[in-house]
Amino acid sequence: SITQSDISYDTDIEQEQEPTKDYTCKGLYLDQCRRHGVIPSTHFLRHINNETLTIRYCGLKPINIKVMVPSLKINTKVTKLDLRDNGLGSRGAVYISQLMKDNEYIAELDLSNNDIGLQGMNIFKEIV
Q1: Per-domain residue ranges of the chain
Q2: Nearest CA among 67, 68, 112, 118 for reference residue 90
């Protein structure tokens, strides 16, 4: 038989707990990948705490940059970001410009051969 003390007994088993959020650079990146259905880049995860983050010739799409931006915004380690030869286009340039507005640690940025066009260049004029 159930007693009054059994009814008021509090247990965590019955209650669903929210998963704790990981607010590290890696955690934010993985969360963004999940939200946007993007396969995480092991290269990005391996090198996110390096001074120089180089991701060249990977065919990154704007969505790949979009999911990287939140983690790079809070990153204080990366001072040089090299995204040369990825074909990011003007949409990718928009995401990178948002990053550069919020991250004061990245001092060098290489976006050469990314087909950002005049529209992309105009976005960066506002930052510089």
Answers
A1: 42-128
A2: 118
DSSP assignments along 22-57, one per residue: --SHHHHHHHHHHHHT-PPPHHHHHHTTSSEEE--S
Nearest residue to 83 via CA among 44, 25, 128: 44
Query: 3-state class of 67 per DSSP?
Result: helix
Tokens of 33: 């990948």
CB contact set of 13 (below 8 Å; sequence gap of 6+) = none
Structure tokens at 71: 């983690």
0.85 exceeded by pTM? no
CA angle 116, 122, 126 (to 5 degrees): 125
Out of 3.40.50.970, 3.80.10.10, 3.40.50.150, 3.40.630.30, which CATH number does the structure's domain 42-128 have?
3.80.10.10
Rounded distance between C-alpha atoms, residue 97 and residue 120, angstroms: 9
Q: Which two tokens stand for residue 36?
A: 């946007």
The predicted-structure confidence for 86-116, as pLDDT tens digits, reads as follows 999 999 999 999 999 999 999 999 999 999 9
